[in-house]
Amino acid sequence: MDFLPPLLEDLAPEHRDEALEVFERLIALDGMVLIEEAEPDTSLVLVCQGKLEIRTGDVVLGSAEVGEMVGEMGLFGGEIRSASVVAVGDTTLLALGRRGYERLRGSGNPVVASIEHASLMELTERLRTTSDRVAGLAEGTSVEHLTPAPGFFARIATMFGAGGIGAPPQVDAAVALARSSLFSEVPLPVLSKVASSFETVAAQEGHFFCTEGSVGDEMFLVVTGHVDVVVNTEGERVELVGTLEPGEAFGMCSLLESDRQRMASCVATGPVVALSMSRSAWAEVVNRPDAVGSAVRVAAIRALSGQLSYANAQLALLDATSPAEQVLVRASGALEAHGVGVTGEHRLPGR
């Protein structure tokens, strides 16, 4: 093969040979659909020559050039594709399925960590692009993704309460992580080591875990209780983007981009116990080359994949949805949380 992606080229010869035995070489002609939206598929592809275009319906979401990858959302997350991938010009690819990935993971091949890191970078960049598109579209509407005015916090207190932090209870963090889909199939001994990077937080109703417009430095996973994802809009309104249940996570993007502003606020709707991970703990664990680091990287990939799928689907509805503000609100909120499953709206009494 004339060109090898950097994550393969930089391997030691024995690791590169093992990886090439697992990857499948493909040639796609111009216009060929490699991944079909709404179809089951768990493969990841690396572009060696040519270009791929990522689409949902008639909306172009992005592209993958030489050296880039697509399909990590299927490899690490759900089997149903949320977008289609089409070859632009004749394209040469390397494909990796889930079975091949697990084989390389089991042998300790360092390409696995490289794939996981590269997937995180790709998803982070796509989320940034989606965030910019949401913000650009919002400029033409009444939706404002800005730091909320003081009245926003008064409205939240009216609906939920004043908030506050209490003494955290005893929590088996490893068991809590095992109940999350983000850490499915991770052995409990590995989760016990992952759990040491988390701290337990107990919040009262109305407590803000994340505030829209602020720069965050920690992520959270809900252990008990529920957390609403809300955004501030004009007209004395607080829009509900979704409700997070135990096992679901939020705020992870802030750990991947140090200057990233929160796209939504996350508030406790009653007593909540959560696990939190700081930026410094994240930086230490996500770079570990062992199974602990892999478990955290895969969890992050799954979380970002869910966020990106939801936001992309909402953006694709813009042309067919009225009012557009509702779609923009949901899309922006999806950039903050994994597991958004309820959409709706809260208003102040009498509004």
Task: Give a structural overview.
There is one protein chain. 37% of the residues lie in helices and 26% in strands. The protein has 351 residues and is of the alpha+beta class. The chain has two domains: 6-109, Jelly Rolls (Sandwich); 133-347, Jelly Rolls (Sandwich). Strand 11 and strand 12 (237-244) form a beta hairpin. It is globular, with a radius of gyration of 21 Å.
SSE layout and pairing:
Layout: H1 6-9, H2 13-22, E1 24-28, E2 33-35, E3 44-56, E4 59-64, E5 69-70, H3 72-76, E6 84-96, H4 98-107, H5 111-138, H6 150-160, E7 165-166, H7 173-178, H8 188-195, E8 199-203, E9 208-210, E10 218-224, E11 227-233, E12 237-244, E13 249-250, H9 253-256, E14 265-268, E15 272-278, H10 279-286, H11 291-316, H12 324-334, E16 337-338, E17 346-347
Antiparallel strand pairs: 1-6, 2-6, 3-4, 3-5, 3-6, 7-8, 8-15, 9-14, 10-13, 10-15, 11-12, 11-14, 12-17, 13-16
Helix pairs in contact: 5-11, 5-12, 8-11, 11-12
Care to give the gist of this entry?
The protein is of the alpha+beta class.
Name its key features.
single chain; 351 residues; alpha+beta; Jelly Rolls; 2 domains; six-stranded antiparallel beta sheet
Largest sheet entry = 6 strands, antiparallel
Q: On the 0-100 scale, what is the average pLDDT?
A: 82
Termini Cα gap? 65 Å
Order of helices and strands: HHEEEEEHEHHHEHHEEEEEEHEEHHHEE
Low-confidence stretches: 143-147, 342-351
Measured on Cα atoms, how large is the radius of gyration? 21 Å
Query: Helical segment tally?
Result: 12
The count of DSSP E runs of length 2 or more, i.e. the number of strands, is 17
CATH superfamily of the largest domain: Jelly Rolls
What is the CATH C-level name of the largest domain? Answer: Mainly Beta
**Count of individual domains:** 2
